[in-house]
Amino acid sequence: QVQLQESGPGLVKPSQTLSLTCTVSGGSITTNYYYWSWIRQPPGKGLEWMGAIAYSGSTYYSPSLKSRTSISRDTSKNQFTLQLSSVTPEDTAVYYCVRDQYRSYEYDYWGQGTQVTVSS
Fold this sequence. Notes:
This protein has 120 residues and is mainly β. It is built from no helices and eleven strands. Strands 2, 4, 5, 6, 9, 10 and 11 form a seven-stranded mixed β-sheet that branches. A four-stranded antiparallel β-sheet has the order 1-3-8-7, with no helix packed on it.
């Protein structure tokens, strides 16, 4: 059973960089054809895909967030990390790490989500 767990600060100040880590257990992030994404849901809004890192290490980003987003991984810890720079209150959301196969956007495993609030 694959499990994903987000971790990171729940409160970030405007203009700072938000950093979240997803720790994966029960499966390797380097296993062929799996993609590991970050998705967020602002209050009262729908889900927004932010970006992904592939089993190969290749990265993919939402065009609307690409200039502020970086996703990396630590294969020795089986973790992948999201960094979102220059945050504003509009980046307040529940952030999820998820998995899909073949970039199908059909996510079979989700983390429980972590609330991040951007406020001074």
